[in-house]
UniProtKB/TrEMBL annotation:
Residues 1-20 form the signal peptide. Keywords: Signal. The keyword Signal applies. This is Lipoprotein.
Length: 139
């Protein structure tokens, strides 16, 4: 394989790794953000797109559609081109009871394998960063 082809295929090979990392961040957020106060959640995740109240508590929903990144590289054997897209969408819903996060649910769609919930990472990353810095503490 020539160096040029390798350079063209490298982003295709890296996309699943980045998605897997982001998926792990989302799962980490599901565990480490339970107990976060409502004000701290608003500080790190922003104002939710939707809110709802029920007997189970408050529900804050964040919808994210990050810009898709894609790579197109020629594949000489097939004679066409190979396109890989990392486009995905995510809906994160936080359940709050007595002003604290009790559960986090993800509803995500991804075009890449092994990237379940990867598009949800940006919603929780800021909160995880503040938890790691000690600026906010889940109770």
């Amino acid at each position: 394989m020539t160096l040029r082809r390798l350079v063209l295929l490298l982003p295709i090979l890296l996309l699943p790794g980045c998605s897997a990392r982001d998926s792990a961040v989302a799962e980490d957020g599901r565990e480490r953000l339970v107990g976060l106060r409502a004000d701290d959640l608003r500080l790190c995740a922003g104002v939710p797109n939707l809110t709802a109240n029920s007997a189970g508590g408050e529900f804050w929903t964040y919808d994210r559609s990050p810009p898709a990144s894609g790579v197109s590289a020629p594949v000489p054997v097939i004679g066409g081109s190979l396109s890989v897209s990392a486009g995905s969408t995510c809906r994160v819903t936080f359940q709050l009871v007595d002003g604290k996060v009790t559960r986090i649910g993800y509803s995500a769609a991804s075009d890449l394998p092994m990237s379940q919930n990867s598009a949800c990472a940006p919603v929780v990353q800021g909160c995880l960063r503040l938890v790691e810095q000690g600026a906010v503490r889940p109770e």
